[in-house]
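thread: overnight batch results

M.L. [08:02]
morning all. the overnight job finished for the chain we discussed friday. pasting input first so we're all looking at the same thing
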Amino acid sequence: MEGNFTYKLDDTLYINLTNSCTNACTFCIRNGRDGLDGYDLWLERCPTAEEIIAEIPDPSVFPEIVFCGFGEPTMRLEVLKAVAKYIKNQGGITRLNTNGHGSLINKRDIVPELKGLIDTVSVSLNAGSKEEYDRVSVPQIDGAFEATVQFIKRSVEILPRTIATVVRVPGIDIEKARSLAEELGAEFRVRELEE
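M.L. [08:03]
and the structure it wrote out:
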């Protein structure tokens, strides 16, 4: 089994583009398992846009289709954009779950490229300061926290809806993270660890 490129939870379809990630979060679901709800999310290889599209029935029947797998979707930006374009052309609604490193990874501001393709972006802010972020997110690239903050700021400016999230883990100042998210103009959501 090469892993699931797409998976369905409740009424929502999720797209699993890659296992690669620029964080090694202490709370990540990948640390303890290979998948979720019976789906094998460890990919032996990354899917093409065509392979993903072939697994999507009518995009308009889902409340939203979410780019969220066992890795960071913006590491495969061109595939993400191609699939998102197909979904939007078929009347679907899209969400990107990201660590916010996309512009850092791709060495350019990618947020304008997502306009018209992504309806909601959910960014894992994870902390209200660089020190907390580095401790819980364990970034594998330099400038990760600053890149995440900038990505949220740009998303608020350009995309229809931006949500900054934080996972409730010991030692994280939730209110500090909330203040930062609000200062950036994003919605704020606390995710429980068991999610």
